Amino acid sequence: MWPALAGIVTALGCGRSDTEGLGVPGLGDRCMPMTEQRKDFSGFSETEVTLESGHEQCETRLCLIHHLRGRVSCPYGQSEAEALQVDTAANWGIRCRVPGTDGSRPEDRVQVPVPAQKFARQPETAVYCSCRCADTLDETDGGADYCHCPRGFTCTHLTDDIGLGPTELTGSFCVKTTGEYDETEVEASPDCTFDRSYPGGWQEHPYQCGPPVPE
Predict the structure, then answer these.
(1) Which of 29, 44, 100, 207 pairs as cysteine with 129 (C-beta 3.0–4.6 A)?
(2) With contact defined as beta carbons under 8 Å apart, do 24 and 131 qualify?
(3) CB distance 67 to 46 below 8 Å
(4) Is 43 left (phi over 0), alpha (psi -120 to 50) or beta?
(5) Where do the structural domains in the chain lie, given as residue ranges?
(6) In degrees to the nearest 10, what's the CA dihedral of 183, 176, 193, 37?
(7) How far apart (Å, rounded) are the C-alpha atoms in residues 97 and 38?
């Protein structure tokens, strides 16, 4: 059964700076998007921002997917042919599977094509626990609870209230200053590449993005 999502908002992003404030417990911690429990989910878009609220891995209860392409759990993606391939072997190889599984069970295998992540936009700087630091007017006096972004983060306007989804997922959120989105850089970036035939091994490839199945 898929986990219940307390709220998801996807939107285009823009930014402003606010580097003052106190530390927030859990801010910046790694999180695995709950959406990736779905085997029919082909991945996020590098042109969009997604917010998952009620996230159990985050003390802030909010997981930010900030301009990531593909799935966190499958950095090299898979083609349509690979997604449809029948494989009875216990090892699912580098193909995409539900996080926390090895793909040996057919019900754990992602059944749709998934794009590879962009080398310049990997989960370390694009997917982490965040918190809401201002409303849609970039104000903090509207009666809601807001966090203060500490050094290393900027209070960045990510979503507007268009009447869809919970209002607590609109406005500005703490974004890593080392992970600010550069559209030109990401567009020009090569894909993450896993090449076993590369001299010295896949680890030596200039565009490798770590193990095929992140821990």
Answers:
(1) 29
(2) yes
(3) yes
(4) left
(5) 1-215
(6) -110
(7) 9
